[in-house]
Amino acid sequence: MVFDKVAQTLAEFKGIDAAGIAPETTFAQFELDSLDRVQLIMNLEETFGIQIDMESRIECVRDLVEIVEKQLSGGAA
Amino acid sequence: MSFSLIGTGSAYPARRVTNDELARLVDTSDEWIRARTGVYERRVLTDESLEDIACAAALRALEDAGVAPRELDLIVCATIRNDYITPSLACLLQKRLGAGCMSMDINAACSGFLYALDVADGYFARGRIKKALVVAAEAMSKMVDWTDRATCVLFGDGAGAAVLSEGNDLLSLRVTASGNAEHLGIPNIEGECPFSLRAGKPQHVYMNGQEVYKFAVNALCRELEAIIDAAGVRQEDIAFVLPHQANTRIIDAAAGKLRIGAEKYLSNIERFGNTSAASIPILMDECRRKNMFHPGDLLALSAFGGGFTTGACVLRWCKQS
Known about the structure:
The structure holds two protein chains of two kinds.
Chain A: H1 2-14, H2 27-30, H3 34-48, H4 61-72
Helix pairs in contact in A: 1-3, 1-4
Chain B: E1 2-11, E2 15-18, H1 19-23, H2 30-37, E3 41-44, H3 50-65, E4 74-78, H4 89-97, E5 102-106, H5 112-125, E6 131-139, E7 157-167, E8 170-180, E9 184-185, E10 206-207, H6 209-230, E11 240-243, H7 248-255, H8 269-272, H9 279-289, E12 298-305, E13 307-316
């Protein structure tokens, strides 16, 4: 499941329990600065073998999951 | 035939500018700067010239090497902004040191020191020279927008130098470029030609921090892996990594991806900020003076920067402590 892998990647990055991450959890709640955001995107790119546009609108975990799913299905993100 | 590194030197301005001082200029704080970049303070040229600190670094390297200026066959300076468009900084140093050799500047931004080593390597390989002086000197303070809190906190001024002689201690070296003026650059002045139709821009650093961070982390990892492999050694064999001192978080991110212990990544960014091409030779000289390096130690140098450029090498340390 894409959500599970995204949540796990996020959890490892922040050093938190993945069980506490929901699709509606916002990025603001993770307290990520702009460099954290880049590093997280890079980690997801490595995890899924995809490229993610750095300018993508990402406000919550659900947005991230949708971007990853779209990339995996061959669409641009 | 390649080279051995037989002397190091460094010099920097006397004036320290702390994060607290910058917080009085722009909307920032010491805490924010430290957390985001690892920088506590940086050196800034006031009444010294870039030539002054470049010369001081060069003299210290020559003294460390036990080489007289007149023995030099080549001077290469890596700098993105000399005090003059011409003559080159290398020519100014040649005169001031009392050398008589060919002298040139190169501009490869933060990768400049590695590019300069590559240039020197070519001359050694062709048997054209026996001794070379490589200097990296930058006056970043003259190109920073001191009202832009995103960039003015990052950079500092400084100079580092190395003296090279014929030898075989360069195990691998690789420089690359991927042309890009979109995410990182410094425009030059347009001049005063009354016929020009081009609008001038301020000579300030501009940078897309996120794109540059991504480029830098990928470059640092990729190039370290490549040059260590090209040297025919294992990552575990590397005694120290001297990464370009751009941002602590770049170094930390890259360190997490390689099989080189985190303790082997050297850093002095907290006291100097990003001194562009000068950062690696300043770091190398500081560590040399602390007797951290021993004969046979394998040093991995890796730089990345405007261009985009990268430069990396594996160097076997040959100097006695």
